[in-house]
Design a protein that fits this description.
- With about 200 residues, the chain is mostly helical.
- Helix content is about 75%, strand content about 0%.
- The longest helix is centred in the middle third of the chain and has 33 residues, at about 95-125.
Amino acid sequence: MPALQEIGILVIQTLGSLYLLIVMLRFLLQLARADFYNPISQFAVKATNPLLIPLRRIIPGVFGIDVASLILALALQYLVIQVSALIMGAGVLNPVQVITWAVIGLLSLTANVYFWSLLIMVIASWLAPNSPNPALMLIHQLVEPVMAPFRKIMPDMGGIDISPIFAFLALNVVQVIIKHLANAAGMYSSGAHALVLGI
């Protein structure tokens, strides 16, 4: 691959990944009812408002779910795949196939966000328990809805919380399912996984 193509793909993928992560974090934090006034929440709101506010005028929320954020994330993923393919000289890809890849990419990104958030939370619980750090507080609020079902079924282990082990196990199962979905969608055989953010 020529240097200019490689640089173009690097720039598109990096900027696309960063913005997509911010959009998905906003969606997931709203879903978890996390602190809106946390500095990180405010950053996500300000970074995504220019695109989300116009989109919300035509796409309303459903049952408290910010559908506009999901549509924006899907559109961004779609755009990055198509632009990357054009830079590589593959032309415009089949839109239905790209939408399928985009959905799988968003599922994978969501699983990765929860995986790393859980890992950070577990490490922080040992190194800095009850830390007032805004990032750690937000991570705790983000993963709490995921942890709650496991905490309900786990027996009391004398103050030791083993629910993260089962949450990690569940996330690994989800990641295996996503990998098989990506395989079934032809992402690995066609090399498309390299174009999809979050995979």
